[in-house]
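# nightly structure sweep
# worker-07 picked up a monomer target from the shared queue
# config: single-sequence mode, recycle default, output format = structure tokens
# input follows
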Amino acid sequence: MASLSLPRVLQQRKTMLEVERENFEKFQGISISKAINQVENPVKEKHVRSAIIGTFQEKGGNTFWSCVLRLPLEDNRIIAWKFCHVLHKVLREGHPQVIPHSQRYKRKIEDIGKLWGHLKEGYGKLIYHYCRLLKMKLDFHSKNPRFPGNLQVTKEELESIGENDINNYFQMSVEMFDYMDEILALQAAIFGSLDMSRANSMTCSGQCRLAPLIPCIQDSSQLYDYCVKFLFKLHASLPSDTLKGHRERFLKQFRDLRQFYISASNLQYFKNLIHIPFLPESPPNFLVQSDLGTYVTPVVILPRQPPESSMSTDVMDSGGGAEALVNLDATSDSSSTTGELVDLGGARNGSISPDIIAQRDSLIEQLQAEIARLRVENQMIIAEYKRKVEELKLRIVQLEDAISAKDNELLQERQVKEDLLLQTEAVEKFQETEKKAKGLEEKFQKLKDVYTKLREEHIQLLRQKAEVDKQLTVTKASCEEAERLRISADAKLKEIENDRLNIQQSLQQSASQADDLKELVAAKESVEKEKEAISNKLDWVLEEKATVEGELVDLLAQKEALDVRLEQEQKELKRMQELSENEMITRIREFIESCITEAESILRRALHEMDNPAFSAVTCTPDYFGRLESPVTRSLECTTDSYSACYKDKSTPSSKSVREFLRCTTQFSNLMADFIIRGQATSNSSANIEQGERVAGASKTAANQCLTLLETMKEGCRNSSRNEDVDMDAIEKEAEAVRLRIKEAVELAHLIGANNSVEIHEDQVEKELADIDRAIDEAAARIEEMLRKSREADSGIKLEVNGKILDSCTALMKAIHVLVQKSRLLQTEIVAQGKGTASAKEFYKRNHQWTEGLISAAKAVAIGAKFFVNAADKAVQGEGKFEQVVVASQEIAASTAQLVIASKVKASRDSANLHALSDASKAVARATGAVVATAKDCSQLVAEQEDFDVSRLSLHQAKTLAMESQVRVLELESLLQKEREKVSTLRRHHYQLGGELEGWDEKLLNFLMDEPSELLEADIHNV
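# output follows
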């Protein structure tokens, strides 16, 4: 010890559990990293089996996910693709808790699919579809937790899941259709990514893409089978028209699934990996229920896989110098899969290497996986065996029915034969006949004695049965069967007596017919056969007697068990009766009062939560809040009715009525607490603050009324303890008040609708105004740039024209810029005056129509500025017309007019900002008029430069050109009128589509649609 350092001595040693846990996590990490690697080849089954076995060892999937999330799933497409494949197999074959543990990672799976989905081809598209399939699988198991990961359930389990409810079958069929759609989409993407002209199924890259189709085939076969069975059940209960959509969807999936199975079966890669079922050429006819009898369930079989190349490969893959720990004898039998472990590292010092332990555990896990696979195969064989047994049982029943029919026919034939024998029989000599009669008499006497003994035993059994029937009625069927046997035996005895009498009569009549010896011998043989039949019948009666005795023993044992149970119940009842009546009444009253007190506490906590400032962020839709009314009112009625049942008279409340009151009160308090909290959340979602406060106030009133009702109930409980009457009328009155308050809150919540659809933010208004400034600044900069280029490149009339046009455009842009600034100041003043104590956002919500008009006007100004600059640019470059500049200027003037009017709607008449905005609007109108006048002057200058020379025209040419010009004038006037109508129609349609002028004045609407150019003519004329 002296040679060891102090830190090493004091180092805390790990426990065996911690060491085993670390080894387990290490081995799982190695197996998962080997299964999910970046090499483009199919996932190795042995590594996946190790991951699956790990889930059973851990009883969950937390370690699996902790290892997977450390992989670069977002960086390498091959790793992401193999991750999807491994996760699919783990969900199918892993521990049942893997699916619940994986639910929290659905968002992660969806994000991976969206990330790789940006790659529209190759693995990106495949990963996107696979992630959608995995998310759908998790959603399906979340909604249907009774389905295991591999979807394999028995017929009884499937009926138990459906609960024999047609609504459940309808919903589950829709969910299975959605599941099947994702599988078919994935397989279509995989086959679409392969080049079928090449042998891709036998290459590593092709097999890497095709390998995930194996679990897809397993899932799809189960889903197809369940969909067929569900649809037959639905068609047996619902009209065919109701299920038309289901049938169409199933038929489409049937065709795609059949083609999928055919395509997969033709690939060499799947020949030895999976046995793919073939679907019939035509789908089942759900309109004919008899088709269900001919339906064959598709069965997917996974053949036994050949042993892995060698266990040494696994050990070498696990690293850590495993080459020195494993020695495989090359001459050993090929059936050996483990090899020989040679202890080279630890044999000298007597210890075992941890790597050998890890290898041993790996071998055990592989053997466990093989056992699990064999169990699955065994279950499949057992299921097939059960199905065949059921078919054989059905066949046996049919054959038994046929045998019974044949027995009836044989009995009839025997009766006919006996009748004929009685008619044709002859007797032998009198002495022999008398001897035979004596023998028959002796046999009959023996049978009679046996029957008498049986009857006495039967009577004794009936007496015992009568004693048992006093306690048990279930033996009725056995007694009836015994009675039937007695009646049958009596009937048989009577038949034998009749036969004896007939024989005696025949003997008396046969004195004269002693000559027919042969016929008498035949009669003797017949009697011997009858004797044998009677003997067989006697044996059968004895067997039935033994059966009845066995049943009687069982009944006596059941009687003794019931006697013991009855004695225990009597003891318990006696113990309960020993409690004094006063103590019982006191306990009942305390139970009821404590229940009411707890209900009051629940409601007060809910009221406290409504006043919590942190709860203001929680919202609820009015529709969901309205659906809470019905369960709350039903629970209220249940509470009042059970309370009335407890105190309907002065007697002690029964335990049943008290239990019902406790249940109803607890349910009502919780439902009412949820109702008032949802009322506050609904008020938070209201765009109208006042309306939302009314809903919250109504919810609080309903809660306070409930507290009053509970206090009244508590006071009635105290009165009952003092032998005073309980005022049920007051309780009913309080309950009716609660109902009215609940209904009032729901009606107020339903009014919250239109305002919630409008969500306008202050930032949006500021953004649009900032866009106007930016658009105007850009327009002014472009005009200055155009003017500079024109001065550098042009001269003469063209320079003069361009200069005038661009100067007038610059003046118009400056006027619009001033107008926008004035409009912003006025808009700020309007918000400050109108919002009061509320915020600007709440002001915009309350006045959403005005705000939308303001935003629309701002957008129109920005768009008009861009159009105006483009028109000026084309006119300066000679590519456009001056009329385009005129139209653009008028359009932007109309847009600014809309902005001005939108600002005037909410402004005060005495506002200085409003007067400044009006002056800026007039300046814009004057600038627009200047642009129009300048455009006309420039057009005249260009026209004067290009005067039409008529000196060389003859009389005929001049007349012809004049007529053509006149026609052109008429055409242009007609075209002008049509274009004006078109512009008016377009403007009306624009404002109607936008819905931005709802509630505005009709005169204002006409101004915005038709009048801007006419209103500007006066200013243009003045200029």
